Amino acid sequence: MHHYISDFRKHIGHEVTVKGWVINIRTSKTNCFFDFRDGTGFTQCVVSLENVGEEAFEAAKSLTLESSVAFTGILIRNEKNLGGYEIQVNKLHIYHLSEGYPITKEDKEMGVDFLSDKRHLWLRSRRQWAIMRVRNELIMSIHDFFQNEGFVQMDAPILTGNACEGTTDLFATEFFGRDAYLSQSGQLYGEAMAMAMNKIYTFGPTFRAEKSNTPRHLSEFWMIEPEMAFYTNEDNMNLIERFIQHVIGRVLFRCRTELETLERDVTGLQKAATRNFPRIQYVDAIKILRGEMDYNGKNCIQAQKDDLAAIETRLQEIEADIKARQEAMPTLSKGQVKFYEAKILALQSEQRDLEEKARNIPKWIESALNFEDGNDFGNSDETVLTRIFDTPIMVFNWPTKIKSFYMKEVEGNPDYVKGVDLLAPDGFGEVVGGSERETDINVLLRKIDEHGLDRNVFEWYLDLRRFGSVPHAGFGLGLERLVRWCCNLPHVRETIPFQRRYGRIEP
Ligand code: 4AD
Ligand code: MG
Predict the structure, then answer these.
(1) What are phi and psi of 71, to 5 degrees?
(2) Does any ligand 1 atom lie closer than 6 A to the CB of residue 430?
């Protein structure tokens, strides 16, 4: 029998046995202090010569980073320790002594390429542990939401004969002598199932062969795609809002430790979980982006200029602070020097981030001011547009030209389609894309041709418009982008256990 750290609450004052891995070691003549993880949580284990005797104490001293071991001892509460507990060990059993564990320092300092190469081990780090748990909570909350709303989960095929989101980023393969592709989206199959079940959602892997090396693009990612019969795009937007509020609310409620570990400031998430999301038509969004139109008294271009001014002030402060600290160095004690050096490193890191922002903002402003009607938003445009909002926003009624063939045209205005994108705040950008679907077979046929797609492979899809065609709508949520936003991460690569993206298929 052994105990899990996640259950420690119930065992305070009693003897417990934990099985896991050593993550930090401090030793003195008579004591070894181990930071320890078992995957369910973290604790400190103290092995003292007095409690365990000489032989076991020597064994404890031989333990190395990521050695696997069982500790038995009395559990006490100790707020100061990692995890808030301490085990006063009276017995230990070593499973395996690890040699030369490659990840020694805090994640960040080792360089992300190195850590990505060692992803199979990096997953053990505290931050990664927290991210994977947030991911898990999001997955479960997504299922809960849809199951509670009466949706039926469906599995769409991964090998497909047709494109859904345009032909440019398909991963091609071969299927017994025929052309086939890895699915970019389960949507078209979801539409078929919605006609059988009314409300469905898919939850599966999707593939995009874009050669995009950006913080938000993966080649293999997980998408959740609900599809609802008899829904308009307005119904769709109502659902997106409630859905996102629900899953964010769940993470805030159930992942406090994880969010704290990630040092995630949760005020933005709290707003997303409780407030309505502004809904803005594309034609207005581009005016807001170009600074031609204010929203609630705020102006996008002015906001960037204000940010830039604030950054410049802060950079001056940092420079002065670093200089003062360097000058004070010779007069300091050893301990103070260490503290000052750490502080300077932190300031320099902030300085680098801010300098990069200060370089970017003028380019972003330039791009926003010159944004042309009918274009799709680039990353920077999304960042500039969302800056004046403190919740996600929904941009709807997009130009027909830049959206997929299946989106329904706006009545009387075929240059626009009833699509909607949810843009997350703080530069996280598009997290959800959805639309009301075209129901008229003739319009669909025309658009399949216009998009240069092969009518034959869509025959089955067209049947949905031949037999009891109904208004319907749906959307796709990119799981990794949602995790990235919730965890406030610089890149999606850390949001999935093993990233597959342009330039990386290993490990
Ligand atoms: O906007 P997208 O391409 O829409 C669809 O695939 C529709 N079929 C969805 C639907 O209506 N059922 O993709 C939907 C979402 C995006 O908003 C984004 O969050 C995510 O999928 N996504 C990606 N995530 C990571 N890496 C990529 N390369 C992604 N491409 C899209
Ligand atoms: Mg999209």
Answers:
(1) -115, 135
(2) yes
